[in-house]
């Protein structure tokens, strides 16, 4: 009985160690927002299409079967979106994805209040968080941070 228990534990240990070798570390995926375009909205919601450039700096392709995004501006939630797109980003390659996001009226009010407190529209911090669903391979999470430089209102000379 003890001998069979030892053999079972030994086999489980070997399988566990070999499984760890299969899950090698990956370099983080580079995600950049390259464009935002308006979409038709519903009542009190604004819809936008967020264009993302996804760069895979790894030796293996990233196969995905869904994507989710959350966008914060000036420390406040602004937009969220999901898409059931399927595809693959080849090894050492890049691709462009377009994800529809929704901005609720409450998010717009929060942002308007925050912008009213700001001295300038330049340099507003943003953070984009998301994930590429990859099924059994695991989910690839990403973050993109930066500063938005919105145009200042122009003053008329007249």
TrEMBL record:
User: Per its UniProt record, what PROSITE patterns does this chain match?
Assistant: PROKAR_LIPOPROTEIN
Against Gene3D superfamilies, the record matches this protein to: 2.60.40.1820
Using the record, list the residue span of the signal peptide; answer none if the entry has no such feature: 1-23
Q: Which UniProt keywords apply?
A: Signal
Domain Water stress and hypersensitive response stretches? 31-151
Please verify whether the record's keywords include ATP-binding. Answer: no
Return the protein name. Water stress and hypersensitive response domain-containing protein
Naturally occurring in which organism (per UniProt)? Pseudomonas laurentiana
């Amino acid at each position: 009985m003890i001998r069979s228990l030892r053999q079972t534990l030994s086999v489980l240990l070997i399988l566990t160690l070999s499984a760890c070798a299969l899950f090698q570390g990956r370099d983080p995926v580079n995600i950049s927002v390259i464009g935002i375009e308006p979409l038709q909205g519903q009542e009190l919601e604004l819809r936008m299409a967020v264009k993302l450039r996804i760069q895979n700096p790894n030796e293996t392709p990233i196969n995905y079967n869904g994507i989710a995004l959350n966008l914060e501006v000036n420390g406040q939630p602004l937009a969220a979106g999901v898409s059931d797109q399927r595809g693959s980003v080849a090894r050492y390659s890049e691709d462009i994805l377009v994800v529809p996001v929704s901005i609720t009226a409450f998010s717009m009010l929060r942002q308007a209040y925050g912008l009213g407190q700001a001295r300038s529209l330049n340099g507003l911090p943003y953070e984009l968080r998301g994930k590429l669903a990859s099924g059994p391979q695991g989910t690839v999470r990403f973050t993109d941070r930066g500063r938005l430089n919105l145009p200042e209102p122009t003053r008329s000379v007249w």
